[in-house]
Design a protein that fits this description.
Radius of gyration: 16 Å
CATH class: Alpha Beta
Shape: elongated
CATH architecture: 2-Layer Sandwich
Structural class: alpha+beta
Number of domains: 1
Largest sheet: 3 strands, antiparallel
Distance between the termini: 45 Å
Number of strands: 5
Strand content: 15-25%
Order of helices and strands: EHEEEHE
CATH topology: Double Stranded RNA Binding Domain
Length: 96
């Protein structure tokens, strides 16, 4: 049986992406604390912070930016936890 896709708002899509985020402490920086946050379902969407909270806050902004760029480039967004964005059908403008 095929799973039904739920269309959600941007804030809900970002929330679902944050549920799947992974965080690791990066010991390679020595004495400087560094936590790296990443959303594997969004290729290249990662960031860092000195604490988990800072990394999560930075990742929130990174997800929003990732989605914005994907929309502007007319890319199909990945389904995350069965959710995707409700977007109007957009047509690419012809470039002369």
């Amino acid at each position: 049986m095929k799973r039904k896709i739920k269309y959600v708002s941007l804030s809900e899509y970002v929330r679902q992406a944050l549920f799947l985020a992974t965080y690791e402490q990066d010991p390679s920086l020595g004495k400087i604390p560094c936590v790296v946050g990443e959303v594997p379902q969004l290729p290249g969407c990662y960031t860092q912070g000195e604490t988990f909270e800072e990394a999560r806050e930075n990742l929130l902004e990174a997800i929003e930016l990732w989605v914005t760029i994907a929309i502007r480039q007319f890319e199909e967004l990945p389904v995350i936890n069965g959710c995707t964005l409700e977007l109007p059908k957009l047509r690419k403008k012809k470039v002369a």
